[in-house]
Amino acid sequence: MGQTEVQEDHRAQVATSFLLGRAAVLGAGAMGSRIAAHLSNAGVPVVLLDVPAQQGPRNGVAAGAIAALLKAKPAAFYDVANAGRITAGNFDDDLALLKDCDWVIEAVTENLAIKQSLLEKIAPHLKPDALVTTNTSGLPVVSIAAKMDAGFRRRWFGTHFFNPPRYMRLVEVIPTAESDPALVGALAQIVDRRLGKTVVMARDTPNFIANRIGTFAMLTAVRLMQEQGLTIEEVDALTGSVIGWPRTGTFRLADMVGLDVLAHVARNFAAAKAAAGEADAGAVDLPPFLVTMLERGWLGDKAGQGFYKKDPAVTDPKKNRLALDWQTLEYRPAERPKFPAIEMAKNAETVAERLKLIANGDTDRDKAGIFLFALLTAIWNYTADVLPEIADSAAEVDRAMRAGFNWELGPFEMWDAAGVAATAAKMRARGLPVSAQAEALLDAGEQSWYREDSALRLVFDPAAKVYRSIEVPDGVASAAVFRRAGKVVRKNPGCSLLDIGEGIALLELHSKKNAIGGDILTLITQTLSPGSEAVRNFRGFVISGDASDFSVGANLMQLLLSIQEGEWDEVDGMIRAFQRMTSAIKFCPRPVVAAPFGMTLGGGAEISLHAARRHPHAELYMGLVESGVGLVPGGGGTKEMALHAADAAQAASGLDPVTAPARFAISADLQDALRQRFETVAMAKVSTSAAEARGLDLLSVKDAVSLNRERLLLDARETAIGLAEAGYAAPFLRSIPAAGESVLATLKLGVYLMRQAEYISDHDVKVAGHIARILCGGAVTPGVMVTEQQLLDLEREAFLSLCGERRTQERIAYTLQNGKPLRN
């Protein structure tokens, strides 16, 4: 066996033998405590240590941080019960707790001497094989452990989380020259598979990858704003969703992150580069007005003011925002700038199309075009210039920016979208430099950084002037990969059927916001109906997609237009078609697994509820929200809640609903189960995690959860395979005893009391009454057996009735226009 084979065998052995049983986080500040919270989310017991408290209990600093996590917004935990996995301690009394920890994360203040001293202090208490990593965002990883022995340095490297760790997908893993590659690889797998993070291997250079590029981008936007005389609001409008960046834009994001954090990263970078005598040390210099803001403590949201602040004299949240005038450092009412070129670009369906329009537009006289061309080309040039220093490939940089800064496209992907050759020609015509890396690409006769070859995606290597395949970890896939490989079986504008291997097919939703319209209803129903070609050819199905959200629900615009035209037969047909689709999902002879993620609302939740199993992403915002637009769940969602209530009541009471339907229907257990589900539906409750969705009965205890969004598709495929191999059989149509008039009266009384207390409106009362009636099987004698079809009929009748209400129509129109519900 050769040396390379021996090394690979060693890495494989370490990867399979390293188990994360317990972890420790050193430092209970905002970052360290939230890392501990996410470890606990992943089921890992955590020791959280900090300095002894000067007053009160000695563990008060760490204990206080845990208490703060329970109140944090956005929530740090999937479920507050996860806080029970965190043990508080201090550096003087509790280092013995480290002896059982497999992974120790250093996350104390960014001070080299403090970090080095702490490592020396903890070393005698560590397991011989414990991995120790640093969460530093700016200090050289190698320098922190420079005083430690060789054995320690072998298991030492960087794991840079992004804040907040629960929500930000990126973890940069930074090995040193002495780090054991097998240990680095083993922990990278844990971070990927168990913590659900996108792992990017970075080099031990100033600010690593994402902060290096992101800080340069932000401060370049500031410089251009000053040069071109733009306002804070104008730059935010130009650096948001129109170019595929978070809609917060540059300055609103800076307020959220904190100007002190931004300044710290910038100064770390400048100092490190200046010390090395490198030319780009001034690339992220802070402008004078920002320095003044820091001196005044205008740090953003944490200080109550930064680039923006709220006007306490104005109560209307739409009008109470003040924006900073950077020239005078005074606040004035924020404006909503509009640029004709940007408004036109917004008509494009994708970010790639928008970037092409912007880059090929009038970038000489148009205000927006001038700014964006200067900003983007500066970012592209800079990123390409530093590529050899910071990463192994352009693909790693793009992954880091997508996962760490929530850019829809990384800088090299953006350059491809705009056209490398065309933009380079424009840059030369203006006397601007073009990165040597880009020139290498063009000199090789190529036109883009990326190339697609069947299922493979290739990226250009400027040093070798060849394309190299992008390594994808086992278990990571997307619908796009199967689409590139020619696996599309059928498709229409809203949905596609793809063969994703192992006898499983994917029903991919891809309409705008994955709103469910006729095209999705038709393809899913036809695909999953007994006797269909797909049912004959595949042993199971997954419903999912590549978008940021699973589905925002039914196509409300299509519904509203039909209502306004008085096309009641068409509205009735829509409801029936929706119910046929969800029934096809539920009664398909093959197992159907829904893999929801992000917003899974209304009809999206109903799709999931009817699947044989759900395999969601951990970040799941799921709810039957139809009452918010004055409707009831009409695609079987309310019906499923009634069935769930019956199941829960039977399990609690032990009563048989078939042999004792009357007793079952009036049992306290059924009343309690129906009340809980009534509140979920009538109050349009939405989970903030998959764990919360279980508590709302939108997921079951059998539904596994994936923490890594990139693994969701193939994880769901494994669930479908498991069901198929276990001999899956479709359920039968059910009948349950109706709770009837008695429980219906109880639910309506609760609604009446809420109205009297002015918690809800008259129209809310009307909607809630319909929901209660469906859940109770109608105003019938308790114990009367009702079928699933009868419950569906009640849903349809209620839905149609509410569509005819003026206030429902107002709610639908308002939601379409403003993206949030109207309480009228």
Going across the biggest sheet, name each strand in turn.
Answer: 3-2-1-4-5-6-7-8
* CATH fold topology of the largest domain: 2-enoyl-CoA Hydratase, Chain A, domain 1
CATH architecture name of the largest domain: Alpha-Beta Complex
Low-confidence stretches: none
- Largest sheet features: 8 strands, mixed
Estimated share of beta-strand residues: 5-15%
CATH superfamily label of the largest domain: 2-enoyl-CoA Hydratase, Chain A, domain 1
Give the overall pLDDT as a whole number: 93
Whole-number count of domains: 3
Class of the largest domain, according to the CATH hierarchy?
A: Alpha Beta
Number of E strands: 24
Helix and strand composition category: alpha/beta
Radius of gyration: 29 Å
End-to-end CA span: 75 Å
Please count the helical segments.
34
The helix content is: 40-55%
What is the 3D shape?
globular
Overview of this protein structure:
The model has no long low-confidence stretch (mean pLDDT 93). The protein has 34 helices and 24 strands. It starts with a helix and ends in a 6-residue tail after the last helix. Strands 3-2-1-4-5-6-7-8 form an eight-stranded mixed β-sheet. A six-stranded mixed β-sheet has the order 15-16-17-18-19-21, sandwiched between helices. Strands 9-10-11 form a three-stranded antiparallel β-sheet. The chain has 824 residues and is α/β, with parallel strands linked by helices. Helix content is 47%, strand content 12%. It folds into three domains: 11-201, 3-Layer(aba) Sandwich (Rossmann fold), CATH 3.40.50; 210-467, Orthogonal Bundle (N-(1-d-carboxylethyl)-l-norvaline Dehydrogenase, domain 2); 480-811, 2-enoyl-CoA Hydratase, Chain A, domain 1 (Alpha-Beta Complex).
